[in-house]
Input
Amino acid sequence: MKKYLLIIFSCLLCFSCLAQTSGLKFHDGKFKIVQFTDLHWVESDSYKLKNDSTYNLMREIIRTERPDLVILTGDVVVSWNALRGWKRLAGLFAEEKMPFAVTFGNHDEETDMNNAQILEYLRTVPYNLTYDAEKLSGSGNCALPVLSSDGKSEKWVLYLMDSHNLTQDRSFGYYDWIKHDQIDWYRRTSDQFTTRNKRTLPSLAFFHIPLPEHETARWVCREFGEKQEGVCASNINSGLLSSFIEKKDVIGVFVGHDHNNDYMVDWNGNIALAYGRKTGYPSAYNEVLSRGARVINLHEEEASFDSYIIDLDGTYFHYTFEQKNQGTGIPRFSGSFIQEFLVANWEDARWDQEMEMFKEAGMKYLIYAPALLTDEKGKTTTNYPSSLTKKKQQNKTLEKCLRSAQKNGIKIFIGLNFNDRWWKVDYDADWLVGQMEIGNKVADELVALYKGKYPDAMYGWYWVWEVDNLNCMTAERQAILAKALNTNLDHLSEITPDMPFMLSPFMNHKVGGNAEEYGKMWETVFAQTHFRFGDIFSPQDCVGAGGLNLDNLSDWFSKLKQAVNTKPGLKFWGNVETFDQQFWVSAPLTRVKKQLDIVNGYVSNLICFAYSHYNSPFVVSNEYHQAYLQYCKEGKLPKVNVPQDVKNVLMLKASKGMEISWIPGSLEHVAGFNIYSNGTLLKKLQVHGNDFPTSFTDKEGNEDNVYEVSTYNVLDEESAKQKAINK
Output
């Protein structure tokens, strides 16, 4: 009986907590938060004009943004007669019918009310959602779940925590710290949400005093936004951030306290540490920023959010944060390139198949390039209807792609234009800038044709021109490169300021500049270019093409990471090559996993070249796809049986060279066939769908050669070699 009573009590407790925070839900997949911070409201006649200005600013931002929730992150009313100030603010939220919640700052208790009394009052006013979840250190520690658009499930969690006031013992520093009982409560609550929903819910945390990591994170990843003063955090690090990282749910931490800071640090896609913009007009010291707020837009089906600063003059520092590896800690692809020759004859049904495969593999980005191509002979073709080409040199594959992507929730980066003359490196600045101007015309046409029709699918731009560590190492070439990039960046910022811009350079350690020189080259280019917050630098890892290898990959990416850190707000992604250029076949998944592990340590997101070409079940053996899915689930590759030996291996003199033929023993687990000549691997022949090769002609071979054939699986584990018999 006691067991059943305990179960009933637990259920009632869960429903009680949810009831206290009811009403927060997504609307058509969107949920908006406005963070006001540091009002420093002084209830006094001498401060009336400043209080009125603060009140009017808040009302204007609420009416402009129409958020679903307002969160005040501390130092709200900081004077005697505090209740009068709180009542006026509560009246604003009641007038605007605006749900709100409060975290307390170090000055809120320096009044004639303590935080517990303030919370007791707030619990009596409409639209307040702040409460004490448990008896913990401080006041207002609580969790606010945000429900789905249909109200049937929990999608996000918002944690509010009291960061306290000053230390009692100044030997520990000036500001207090979030206590262990609060951290333990967060960990238990996080586990409860995870258990109840059978998955980790993306979450945000709000409190007043910044963490020590608001400073130390800047040493690893460059902040963007305003940093006009030092970080005034506690000297004691009580481990809250480590709990956020371990639980993998809190992906954004938002604070106030330092009035001249509003920056954000994207910590390699693991978590974002951010300040709000000071809201209140009363100044506590020399304050240099205009008054405003931070806006945060949550995405219902993704662990990501958009954020920006707003004041009366406009918005600034727009940025999209997305959690790396979907919060699993397992490096994985979020997207892939796809090329025209593969999709030229696809109809809608085939595109839908591809998009479904992307979703099954956990990918949401597809990079399709270029929209306009000029070949070595000067012939120009487009994959959309264009005034820049003849009608017979156009097709409509891009629209088919966008139509399917819009239907399936996939985001497309569209490559603008490319001219094969680029590879000859015989051009001057005028020619290259002219090509960029053609790219701008392509962008204009694409926006007119498709942006309104496929607004979610037409997500970003891809700069098709691949820069290397050989041909842009001089100051002159770097200036030309920067001018070319700016020609596109400036135009795209005008016509599509919300669409991120991506480029994917490459490198070859055998020629040109070394890792350090290549990093310095990009630092010089970044200093001259107009990249926006949220644009993406995604170098190829070059392992598939042979430009780098597993031994030097880390060195090159570490130097490029340093270069990216010189450009605030520029995202650093990694483009992992899933092919083996020696034979143009799929790379073994064992090698790809090692690439993922290395590159993941430096970047905030991972894409690949190219899942659609080298890992798709519609192109190669389905086991590449199935093994990858299992890896994403378990963090390790599955064991795959070594395929059976081939049979009846024969060699026959052909009109040119020698023909080697064989009969597969069994097709199970066969990803391809290895052909050896005199003990050296001569060729890898890959299985394509249901097409299993059974012969190969060595045009340079002769009857004296010793040929052997084996099978291999997706891990590149091979069967015994079978020697060919002269027929």
